[in-house]
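ARCHIVE CARD
Drawer: 12
Card no.: 0347
Subject: one protein chain, sequence and derived structure
Cross-reference: see card 0346
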Amino acid sequence: MNRIRFSAQKQDESPLIVLTADETMMSKYHWGIFVGFSTCMPRGIIPDWFYFSVWSPPGPTKRNRAVYADAGLRIMEACLVNVFGEAEVAVVHPRDLEAVVGERTEIIGIGGHDFLGINPPTSEFVEMVNTGPRPTTVRSSLN
């Protein structure tokens, strides 16, 4: 796992709590309602460089905060904001962690679905293609 290095931003600007998820959950998939199910496919069918740049590009951000995120992350964010305040909680894309996490950050929460790759859509894709590589959700979560 990569170590997160503190960013060059001012130490007093880093939030206390940072929430993120694997890359597959932080894309809007060009608004294709069923394209998100592509994360259940076994790895190797679509090369990672193509998948994450064309098929599932990172969603937009504002000041390194994710504009779109999983509903579970947003619910968690809302609960934490009620207690700690809006400036102390940030939902970010995993590629933006280094820019947001600072010395004040105490908690990094990681959300996800099907970390083990055993839920029905994932197991069905693996069975249909008759292959065993881990699906994109598992690879993305474990890196």
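Annotation on reverse: The mean pLDDT is 80. DSSP finds five helices and five strands in the chain.
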